[in-house]
C-alpha cells in the first residue's frame, strides 16, 4: 500500500450502497479498503475484493485494524454505534446512513471537536441532490410556502428521508417557522398533511421501482415553483462519497451535509 493511500473501514459492505462503495474504493487509486464491519458472520467469504478482513464486532475491528476513515452505510442504530467507536479510535467517520436527530448530530459534533477529528454526516451524496437543496434554500427567500415530497424504494427504513429533513433544515434557516395551509384545516385521515418541520409539510412515498427522488414545491400568488431531483442509479452517490472521504481527512470538525463543501 502506498503511503498516500487513505485507509478505509467500510460498515455495511453487502448493502446496496455498500456494494457500490466497495466498487468505488477498488477503483480509486489513493483509497484502500482495510476492513469491513458486517453484523452477519456467515457473509465472511462473500467478497472478491482481495484479502480484506470482515469483522462482526466493530470494537474489535477498530482495535485491530489501523484506519483513517470509516464509511458507514448501514442502519441508523448501527451507524450511531459505529460512529462513536470510530471517534474513540481516532478514525474519521463518513456517515451516509440516515436517521440521525439534530440533537444526536450536535452531540457528535462536540465529540469530534473534542478530539480535533474530522467527521461527516451526509444525508445525500448525490451532487444533483445537494444542488436541489441549495436551490431550494435560495427559492425559500422568495416563497414562504413550501411542501416537500420525497419518494424512495420500499426497502427504506427511515421516514422521512435524511435528504428531506436536511432540505427542511436549510429552508428553515432562511424562512423561520410558518404555519401553512388554512388556519382551520384539520385531517379527517391522520397523516394526510404529512409530517411537519417548522410548519413545513413533508410527504414520504415508498414504492418498489423507485430509487431516491425528491420534489420541493413552492407556492406563491398565481404561481408554483418545483425543484426536483432523481437518483435513478446508486452510482449517483459515489462521487460524493469520494469527496466526503477526501474532505474528512482535511478537517477537524463535524460537517453535516455536502453543501458545506461544494461552492
Ligand atoms: N447519504 C446518501 O447519499 C445515501 C444514504 N443512504 C442510506 O444508507 C443506508 C444504507 O442504505 P442501503 O445500502 O440502501 O441499505 P441496505 O439495506 O441495502 O444496506 C444496509 C446494509 O447494512 C447491513 N447492516 C445492518 N446492520 C449492520 C450492522 N450492525 N453492522 C454492519 N452492517 C449492518 C445490512 O445487513 P442485513 O441486510 O443483512 O441486515 C445491509 O447489508 C440507509 O440509512 C440509507 O438511508 C442510501 C443511499 C444514499
Ligand atoms: O435510503 C435511500 O435509498 C436513500 N437515503 C438517503 C436519504 O434518506 O435521504 C439519501 C437518498 O435519498 C437515498
UniProtKB/TrEMBL annotation:
<keyword id="KW-0457">Lysine biosynthesis</keyword>
<feature type="binding site">
    <location>
        <begin position="96"/>
        <end position="98"/>
    </location>
    <ligand>
        <name>NAD(+)</name>
    </ligand>
</feature>
<feature type="active site" description="Proton donor/acceptor">
    <location>
        <position position="152"/>
    </location>
</feature>
<feature type="binding site">
    <location>
        <begin position="162"/>
        <end position="163"/>
    </location>
    <ligand>
        <name>(S)-2,3,4,5-tetrahydrodipicolinate</name>
    </ligand>
</feature>
<dbReference type="InterPro" id="IPR022663">
    <property type="entry name" value="DapB_C"/>
</dbReference>
<keyword id="KW-0963">Cytoplasm</keyword>
<dbReference type="GO" id="GO:0051287">
    <property type="term" value="F:NAD binding"/>
</dbReference>
<keyword id="KW-0028">Amino-acid biosynthesis</keyword>
<feature type="binding site">
    <location>
        <begin position="12"/>
        <end position="17"/>
    </location>
    <ligand>
        <name>NAD(+)</name>
    </ligand>
</feature>
<keyword id="KW-0220">Diaminopimelate biosynthesis</keyword>
<dbReference type="InterPro" id="IPR023940">
    <property type="entry name" value="DHDPR_bac"/>
</dbReference>
<feature type="domain" description="Dihydrodipicolinate reductase N-terminal">
    <location>
        <begin position="6"/>
        <end position="125"/>
    </location>
</feature>
<feature type="domain" description="Dihydrodipicolinate reductase C-terminal">
    <location>
        <begin position="128"/>
        <end position="262"/>
    </location>
</feature>
<dbReference type="GO" id="GO:0005829">
    <property type="term" value="C:cytosol"/>
</dbReference>
<feature type="active site" description="Proton donor">
    <location>
        <position position="156"/>
    </location>
</feature>
<feature type="binding site">
    <location>
        <position position="153"/>
    </location>
    <ligand>
        <name>(S)-2,3,4,5-tetrahydrodipicolinate</name>
    </ligand>
</feature>
<keyword id="KW-0521">NADP</keyword>
<dbReference type="InterPro" id="IPR036291">
    <property type="entry name" value="NAD(P)-bd_dom_sf"/>
</dbReference>
<dbReference type="GO" id="GO:0050661">
    <property type="term" value="F:NADP binding"/>
</dbReference>
<dbReference type="InterPro" id="IPR022664">
    <property type="entry name" value="DapB_N_CS"/>
</dbReference>
<dbReference type="GO" id="GO:0009089">
    <property type="term" value="P:lysine biosynthetic process via diaminopimelate"/>
</dbReference>
<dbReference type="Pfam" id="PF05173">
    <property type="entry name" value="DapB_C"/>
</dbReference>
<comment type="similarity">
    <text>Belongs to the DapB family.</text>
</comment>
<feature type="binding site">
    <location>
        <position position="40"/>
    </location>
    <ligand>
        <name>NADP(+)</name>
    </ligand>
</feature>
<keyword id="KW-0520">NAD</keyword>
<dbReference type="GO" id="GO:0008839">
    <property type="term" value="F:4-hydroxy-tetrahydrodipicolinate reductase"/>
</dbReference>
<keyword id="KW-0560">Oxidoreductase</keyword>
<feature type="binding site">
    <location>
        <begin position="122"/>
        <end position="125"/>
    </location>
    <ligand>
        <name>NAD(+)</name>
    </ligand>
</feature>
<feature type="region of interest" description="Disordered">
    <location>
        <begin position="175"/>
        <end position="194"/>
    </location>
</feature>
<dbReference type="GO" id="GO:0019877">
    <property type="term" value="P:diaminopimelate biosynthetic process"/>
</dbReference>
<dbReference type="InterPro" id="IPR000846">
    <property type="entry name" value="DapB_N"/>
</dbReference>
<comment type="subunit">
    <text>Homotetramer.</text>
</comment>
<feature type="compositionally biased region" description="Basic and acidic residues">
    <location>
        <begin position="175"/>
        <end position="185"/>
    </location>
</feature>
<protein>
    <recommendedName>
        <fullName>4-hydroxy-tetrahydrodipicolinate reductase</fullName>
        <ecNumber>1.17.1.8</ecNumber>
    </recommendedName>
</protein>
<comment type="pathway">
    <text>Amino-acid biosynthesis; L-lysine biosynthesis via DAP pathway; (S)-tetrahydrodipicolinate from L-aspartate: step 4/4.</text>
</comment>
<comment type="function">
    <text>Catalyzes the conversion of 4-hydroxy-tetrahydrodipicolinate (HTPA) to tetrahydrodipicolinate.</text>
</comment>
<dbReference type="Pfam" id="PF01113">
    <property type="entry name" value="DapB_N"/>
</dbReference>
<dbReference type="GO" id="GO:0016726">
    <property type="term" value="F:oxidoreductase activity, acting on CH or CH2 groups, NAD or NADP as acceptor"/>
</dbReference>
